[in-house]
Write a structure and sequence with these properties.
7 helices; mainly alpha; about 170 residues; elongated
Length: about 170
């Protein structure tokens, strides 16, 4: 399972890099076309929206996989280690539930509703934009399960106190 996580981490990192570079180029073109050529580009605005949504959701899933999200865990840090583990597993179980119900199931429903809607600026349908929801939901669910198992087995700490003090 760790090998799958490592591959997924690398794939997500490269996807985010490529999406970010494409977003910078697209917005740069948009500004250049509007300000220098005095001919605004309609397609670049639509593309920027797609790129931004995919980048935000994939980046969020990647950061979650690295356990890099901001956490208000002061009270949990003061608990005994076993209580920290239980709390961490419950947090990941809550995240798994959110990913399954909202991102995967809800995202799938939205994709079905919007798959036939077309855009004027791009030769894509709106469903492609919302497809990021269930895909990132599956990734987040995988990371939740991975971390629940690792914390339960003791392979990961529940709260990384060293990372917390490094930020202070």
């Amino acid at each position: 399972m760790t090998a799958v996580k490592n591959v997924l981490d690398r794939v997500l990192a490269w996807c985010c890099i490529v999406l970010f570079a494409a977003l910078v180029l697209d917005v740069g073109w948009q500004v250049f076309a509007r300000q220098v050529l005095d001919s605004p580009s309609g397609w670049s605005e639509e593309l920027a929206k797609y790129l931004f949504i995919w980048l935000g959701l994939l980046g969020g899933a990647w950061v979650f996989g690295e356990r890099g999200h901001v956490a208000a865990d002061l009270a949990v840090q003061r608990m005994p280690e076993k209580a920290q583990r239980v709390t961490a597993v419950l947090v990941h179980l809550s995240t798994l539930t959110f990913a399954a119900l909202t991102l995967i199931w809800g995202g799938y429903q939205v994709v079905q509703l919007t798959w036939d809607q077309t855009l004027t600026g791009l030769p894509l349908n709106v469903g492609w934009m919302y497809l990021a929801l269930p895909i990132c939901g599956v990734i987040t669910a995988f990371y939740s399960i991975y971390h629940m198992i690792a914390i339960s087995k003791g392979d990961e700490v529940a709260i990384d106190a060293e990372a917390e003090t490094a930020l202070s």
